[in-house]
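Page 42, continued from yesterday. The earlier attempt failed because a stray header line got pasted into the input along with the sequence. Redoing it now with the clean sequence only.
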Amino acid sequence: MKKKLCLIVSMCLLLLGLSACGEDPKKMDYNGKSYDDLKSTSENLASGLPEFTDQQIDEGIAYYEQYGDTVIVGLMKQWKEIKADVGDFVKLGELSVDKSGKTLTTSQLMDFTGRDLTLTCVYNYLDMQITSVTLDENYSLGEKMQKAAMNTLMGLGTVFLILILISLVIYGFKIIPYLEKKAKDKNAPAQEPVQSQVPAPVMQAEQIDAQQDDLELIAVITAAIAAAEGTLAADGFVVRSIKRRK
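This time it went through. Structure tokens are written below.
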């Protein structure tokens, strides 16, 4: 019995939800405001913008900035930036209303000769006060695809540029030691070439040793000749030359 009762209650709630979703937004009550009230507010804002001159826009911005009305100031600044690109005003389009939680949003279409705009008003549903108003340009499907392609190309180009830069930095690490070595070699003091010849003192010492060896050899030969002749004095002998025999 309890299960059947819960099932019946669930079905009733589902039917009520479906009936609420299918209700005409033009006949709904939005916390004390009707669809016509919301439409009137959006149309007054949308139709008033094209009538302002640049001087009036600047005066309006200065006026509302004194009172801290950031919503109107932001809207007029936005309109001043894009008014030259949209062309002449033609007519107002449909108004759509969307409620989500504590926020209610209205979107008013504005037809221009150059590009259509959408005036979006955001309300706080608790007190139905406007918290923000924005102007958005309506792009065609081709323009959206072109913009997406440009963003993709820019993203890929940025990635490849960064990769090339990283590669150059890594390659630079290989060149730095070579440049440092080259700089050290350039700044190092020049060394005198090593002479292949034997230093003069060494040569002189070798010559003295050779002369001493020859004198000793002469003295030995003279003593041998004197002994062979039977004389002890070697005054009468003069050695002219010494030849080595095999």
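Notes: Residues 14-21 have pLDDT under 50 and may be disordered.
Reminder to self: strip header lines before submitting.
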